[in-house]
Each structure stands twice: as C-alpha cells, then as structure tokens.
C-alpha cells in the first residue's frame, strides 16, 4: 500500500514538472515570457520568442544556450528601449543587426540601473538576442530580467524626432491620451549624463494622473524626465506638462505654456474638435 501511494505521488510530480517544462520551453506569442534554462533541457541552440505587444517583460532563470526575442508590435515603425532589472546575471543582451550583434547589456558593465538602452526598428520589428554565459556554478541561480517599451516613430532616420515641439493638434491629442497632466513651474533642472536624461523638478499646482500612480496626487513636487539629447532648458512661468510612464520614468512629451494651452483649449471647444473633456 505504501509503495503504491509513493508510486502515485512520484508519477504526479513527474507529470507536473514535465508539463511545466513544456510550457516554459514554448515560444511566446504574447507580451511577457518567464522561463528556466534548467527546464528547457537545452544547453546549446537558440530558443525563439515571438512578442506582439508594445510593452512587456522577459525573465530567464538559470540561463542556458540563448533566446532570440522577436518584437513585432502593431506599429510599422518604432523606437524601443529596455530597462535591465537590478542584479541581472548569467547572460548578455544584444541587439541583432544586419550582419552583427550590438551589445546592450552585460553584468558588471558599470552602467546605472535607470539607464534606458534604446534602438529603432527594422522592417517593423526588432530582434533581441540573449546569450547565456557559461555557468561557473550549475547550482547558482542566475537570472536576467528586463522590461521593454516600444513607441511609434514617424521617421526612423530622425534621431531628434521625440525632441520636436508639439503642434496644437498633438497637444490636444496628448491631453486626452497622456498618463499624466501636470500644471506647474520648473523649480530645478538637472542633466544626468549617466542615465542620459534631463530631470525637471516641477512645483505642481494641479495633477491629473492614471490610477497606478495615485500617490502623486498629494505631493507638491514631482520629477519628470526628458532625453538628454533634447537639450532641455528651464523656462520661466507656468506650463502644462503632458506625458507617459516609460520603464518606470514619467517622460514629458508636450509642455506648452499654460497661456498657450488655454488658447488651444478655447478654440477647440468653440469648434467642437476636442477629443475628450477639456477641463
């Protein structure tokens, strides 16, 4: 009787592990992927992943062999960035080019955790290649983990496209679609070379923000980000800051002066061209 119970238990455990291994080894066709090199049972070769979303997350325990993550979102042209999780080890991350791999990350490269490692699409897609390092200890739990974010870009050859001032139409659309709308003045500006961002400290007089970041609603000062390459300057007076969260950072997209925004809003309401309620 005892032997029968033990045998049944062993078979159930085997089936669970075997099923888990198959699930983790299959190519993904969604936004995220989590897997283990131990369950893959592959020490060489490349496992393909197919990710169709504009945002997602990849986490690979005990890296073995390699992954090739093909990012193909519903965008014809796009710019993408990845943010590597702290303490990621055991594999290196590359961007696949026409004839070579371009390094994006390796453990101990000395780059800050907040750095966004960015790239542009080719023919509507991007391939990220994750190559496992030879394990120094097969029992050590190395993990590489990163988040990706992809946004539409009109002209892939224009590296400064995201730095261009917004048109009135873009401001109206951004007001209706942004993750945050903040009215306030710039109290400090810091250009951070290590993360390649300009950090604007805003003294806020009004904040509208999406639900996941409601903790912002009771503060007087917030820090917003722009790419360092944009050469952001601190203007005097009151502005309306519109933008979205990207890889944990609130990124400014449009920042019209408050007086200009009020004029845009007035004209849009009078012409009934507003896409949402303009408070």
UniProtKB/TrEMBL annotation:
Taxonomic classification: Eukaryota, Metazoa, Ecdysozoa, Arthropoda, Chelicerata
Entry GO CC: extracellular space
Family classification: Belongs to the meteorin family.
Annotated TM spans: none
Keywords: Disulfide bond, Secreted, Signal
Range of residues in the leader sequence: 1-25
UniProt key word Secreted: yes
Subcellular location: Secreted
Name of the protein described by the UniProt record: Meteorin-like protein
PANTHER family xrefs: METEORIN-LIKE PROTEIN
GO molecular function: hormone activity
């Amino acid at each position: 009787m005892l032997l029968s119970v033990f045998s049944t238990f062993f078979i159930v455990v085997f089936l669970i592990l075997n099923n888990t291994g198959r699930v983790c080894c299959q190519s993904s066709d969604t936004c995220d992927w989590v897997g283990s090199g131990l369950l893959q049972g592959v020490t060489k070769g490349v496992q393909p992943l197919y990710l169709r979303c504009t945002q997602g997350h990849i986490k690979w325990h005990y890296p073995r062999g390699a992954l090739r993550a093909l990012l193909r979102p519903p965008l014809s042209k796009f710019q993408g960035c990845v943010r590597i999780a702290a303490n990621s080890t055991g594999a290196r991350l590359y961007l696949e080019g026409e004839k070579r791999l371009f390094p994006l990350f390796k453990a101990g490269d000395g780059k800050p955790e907040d750095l966004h490692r960015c790239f542009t699409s080719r023919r509507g897609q991007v391939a990220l290649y994750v190559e496992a390092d030879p394990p120094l200890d097969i029992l050590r739990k190395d993990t590489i983990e990163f988040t990706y974010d992809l946004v539409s870009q009109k002209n892939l050859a224009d590296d400064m496209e995201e730095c261009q001032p917004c048109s009135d139409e873009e401001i109206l659309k951004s007001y209706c679609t942004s993750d945050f709308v903040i009215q306030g003045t710039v109290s400090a500006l810091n250009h951070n070379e290590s993360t390649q961002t300009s950090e604007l400290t805003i003294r806020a007089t009004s904040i509208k923000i999406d639900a996941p970041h409601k903790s912002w609603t009771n503060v007087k000062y917030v820090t917003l980000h722009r790419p360092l390459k944009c050469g952001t300057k601190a203007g005097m007076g009151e502005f309306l800051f519109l933008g979205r969260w990207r890889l944990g950072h609130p990124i400014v997209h449009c920042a019209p002066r408050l007086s200009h925004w009020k004029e845009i809003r007035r004209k849009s309401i009078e012409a009934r061209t507003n896409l949402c309620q303009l408070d």
